[in-house]
Structures are given as structure tokens and as C-alpha cells.
Recover the amino acids of this structure.
């Protein structure tokens, strides 16, 4: 996605990059929350 899209559509590639960077920055938070919920259900 990040390799081919810029050659096809630069504007769309920039928009997608912003979204992907945001998700990448937040994914450790989502994973931590999922783990917290998992162990809360066990106890």
C-alpha cells in the first residue's frame, strides 16, 4: 500500500499515510486495553 499508492495517486497516498501513522501510534494502547479486558474477565 505504502509502496505503490504514491505512484498511482499522490494525494490519496498522503491521506492514507496520515491514517496509517495514527493507527501505528495507537496500536500499543489498543493491545494493552485488550489484554487488560482479557485478564479482568478471567478473575
Amino acid at each position: 500500500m505504502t509502496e505503490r499508492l504514491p505512484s498511482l495517486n499522490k494525494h490519496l497516498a498522503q491521506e492514507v499515510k496520515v491514517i496509517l501513522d495514527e493507527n501505528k501510534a495507537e496500536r500499543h494502547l489498543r493491545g494493552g486495553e485488550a489484554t487488560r479486558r482479557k485478564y479482568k474477565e478471567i478473575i
Notes: Helices lie at 5-8, 10-42.
